């Protein structure tokens, strides 16, 4: 679905992406992880078509990402940037409705999709609220609802959990994973390694503009990889209730071994969790 080959990019003489090669497929939730300044968000922007690399190519399907019009891109990929601040007085409903502008007007369908997307993020009671009056977490959920309402086959989320409380962090990533299960290509930038372990099918670990590890959570989230890239002693063990790694930071430099990590990462959803009704992929 998305292929980047030999992509490099520099800012003010500093190379932030260094000959990156990556392919991202439908039906997979891929988490981009790494320390601050690793190049995650820059690669994210290049994959989204928002930043042009100095060298290399990025293809969406068989076409260069730069060959698409803005409207064509809006029908192919939905993007949640780190900064989703709205500086004008729109309601939550109006912000989410912007996701439908790239499609031919269909008032009934558009209203259904917008309503369901707002309900999906538990903001039905806030749909008339001015977005400038929302908290950081509420604003993030409204922005995620806009992504859902765009109903695209490619979804890019840059740190979607950064301002959210625990329950809504889980809810957003559970929703993102379900979109992948329905066939979407989902790319998520995350700082929380345990959230990446719990929800990603594939993890791409970056450092200094390069991909240093790429694979299933248990293949990437090892003591060797984490300590080499983050410079932080950790213990990697099994999550007590989820079949995925659990990473614990430690001050004990000697506690550098993987303990009982096995199996693919699977998270059991709450029985009451609802399916995606606001996104068609």
From TrEMBL:
Give a yes or no for keyword Transport in this entry. Answer: yes
Q: Name one GO molecular function term.
A: ATP hydrolysis activity
Q: Which PROSITE patterns match?
A: ABC_TRANSPORTER_2 (PS50893)
> Can you give the residue ranges of the ABC transporter domain?
2-233
A Pfam family found in this protein is ABC_tran
Any idea which UniProt keywords this protein has? ATP-binding, Nucleotide-binding, Translocase, Transport
Q: Fetch the Gene3D superfamilies from UniProt.
A: P-loop containing nucleotide triphosphate hydrolases
Q: Which domain of life is it from?
A: Bacteria
NCBIfam families attached here? PRK13548.1
Q: What is this protein called?
A: Hemin ABC transporter ATP-binding protein
| Species in which this protein is naturally found | Kineosphaera limosa NBRC 100340
């Amino acid at each position: 679905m998305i292929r980047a080959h030999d992509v490099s990019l520099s800012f003010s003489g500093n190379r932030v992406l260094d000959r990156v090669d990556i392919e991202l497929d439908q039906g997979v939730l891929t988490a981009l992880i790494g320390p601050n300044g690793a190049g995650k968000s820059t690669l994210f922007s290049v994959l989204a078509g928002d930043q042009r690399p100095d060298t290399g190519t990025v293809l969406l399907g068989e076409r260069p990402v730069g060959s698409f019009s803005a409207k064509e891109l809006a029908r192919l990929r939905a993007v949640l940037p780190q900064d989703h601040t709205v500086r004008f007085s729109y309601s939550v409903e109006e912000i989410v409705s912007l996701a439908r502008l790239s499609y031919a007007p269909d008032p009934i369908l558009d209203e259904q999709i917008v309503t369901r997307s707002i309900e999906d993020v538990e903001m039905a009671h806030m749909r008339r609220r001015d977005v400038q009056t929302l908290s950081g977490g509420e604003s993030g959920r409204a922005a995620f609802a806009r992504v859902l309402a765009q109903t695209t086959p490619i979804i890019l989320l840059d740190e979607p959990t950064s301002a959210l409380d625990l329950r809504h962090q889980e809810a957003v990533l559970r929703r993102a994973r379900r979109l992948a299960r329905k066939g979407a290509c989902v790319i998520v930038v995350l700082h929380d390694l345990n959230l990446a372990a719990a929800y990603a099918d594939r993890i791409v670990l970056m450092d200094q503009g390069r991909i240093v590890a790429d694979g299933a959570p248990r293949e990437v989230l090892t003591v060797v990889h984490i300590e080499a890239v983050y410079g932080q002693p950790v213990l990697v063990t099994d999550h007590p209730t989820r079949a995925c790694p659990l990473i614990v930071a430690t001050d004990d430099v000697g506690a550098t071994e993987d303990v009982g990590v096995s199996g693919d990462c699977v998270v059991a959803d709450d029985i009451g969790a609802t399916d995606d009704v606001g996104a068609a992929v």
